[in-house]
Design brief:
Length: about 325
């Protein structure tokens, strides 16, 4: 496949480019202004986007805030019949992608898969795998703990732009979150019991797309939020030969139905770096062996979630 990466010189974009190369692809780097990009295309210039996508089979969109950048690139992907994947953590962006682009994607015969990264895709995969054949659930909880958070410039830009009210699943419907209450969560070691706050990301939108569940809640531990809110917190620093930082994460996904409970825990390193193998694996699986016809889909809707997670385990990207 010929795979383009839009925003290739950004922090996460560079991880995506390197992951594609590691898997034997020759990625096409596209940027908005970057002089080191193979092709330059502005999002407000449709013709330049069309030229940049010419000859490609899929594009991975890494340049947020996706509330502003997703729609023009999806429109270009539709015109060029190029499969589209992005990394949004922004609920409103994922929601708009499903609402606006499902029918056009089916008509053009392409896949549109938003939020195929750490936020969004990984939680969707964990919860879907935990369902393990259940047709519905009463409640899903996804809790994330980070030992620290060194936000990129892109993360800070997205945080400033993403002021939409966050949504939760309540009574089987997406509803505005009520004022979140502080709580605690007993994570596996080395995290242990952590103070958490309810903070839904794009996995709520993805799971609502394809899982029958009455209630869903997301939690994040408080410590990394203090890092995120501090303007003096520096950006990530490479700590190994792959450029990953020394940040570690754990994600708990719990699915309940009646008195039954199923639980999957995912552990790994660097939420930006882990996004690269997630989205590249998604492109390879969805485009080469599609389980569904074309359209706009949540990641857990178009792949075998358990097999996908096991592939990340085999390559040493995560621990289950």
């Amino acid at each position: 496949m010929n795979i383009a990466v839009y925003g290739a010189s950004g922090h996460t974009g560079r991880f995506v480019v390197e992951e594609l190369r590691r898997r034997g692809h020759a990625p096409l780097a596209i940027g908005r202004h970057e002089s080191n990009a193979a092709r330059v295309a502005r999002l407000d210039e449709g013709e330049s986007l069309d030229r940049a996508l010419a000859g490609t089979d899929a594009v991975i969109h890494c340049a947020g805030p996706f509330l502003d950048t997703a729609a023009p690139l999806i429109e270009a992907a539709l015109r060029s019949r190029v499969h589209y994947f992005d990394l949004t953590a922004e609920q409103e962006s994922a929601l708009s992608t499903f609402a606006l682009f499902d029918a056009p994607a089916r008509e053009r015969g392409i896949f549109v898969v938003p939020a195929a990264g750490f936020f969004g895709g990984l939680g969707d995969l964990a919860a879907t795998a935990a369902m393990n054949g259940w047709t519905h659930a009463d409640r899903i909880e996804i809790a994330i703990a980070l030992d620290h958070w060194r936000p990129t410039r892109g993360t800070r830009m997205t945080g400033a732009r993403n002021t939409a009210t966050r949504l939760v699943l309540s009574g089987g419907k997406l509803e505005p979150i009520r004022p979140p209450a502080a709580a605690s969560w007993n994570f596996p070691e080395p995290f242990g019991t952590q103070d958490v706050i309810e903070l839904p990301f794009s996995e709520t939108i993805l799971i609502a797309r394809h899982v029958r569940v009455r209630e869903m809640r997301n939690y994040l531990n408080q410590a990394p939020l203090r890092d995120l809110r501090d303007p003096a917190t520096p950006e990530p620093v490479a700590a190994d030969e792959r450029g990953r930082s020394n940040q570690h994460f754990v994600m708990d996904a719990i699915v309940r139905r009646g008195e039954e409970e199923r639980h999957i825990t995912v552990m790994g390193r660097d939420i930006y770096a882990i996004t690269a193998p997630i989205v590249v694996e998604a492109v390879e699986r969805v485009c080469r062996n599609p389980q569904r016809g074309a359209g706009a889909f949540a990641l857990g809707q178009v792949v075998d979630a358990d097999a996908f997670l096991q592939s990340l385990v085999r390559t040493g990207e995560i621990v289950l």
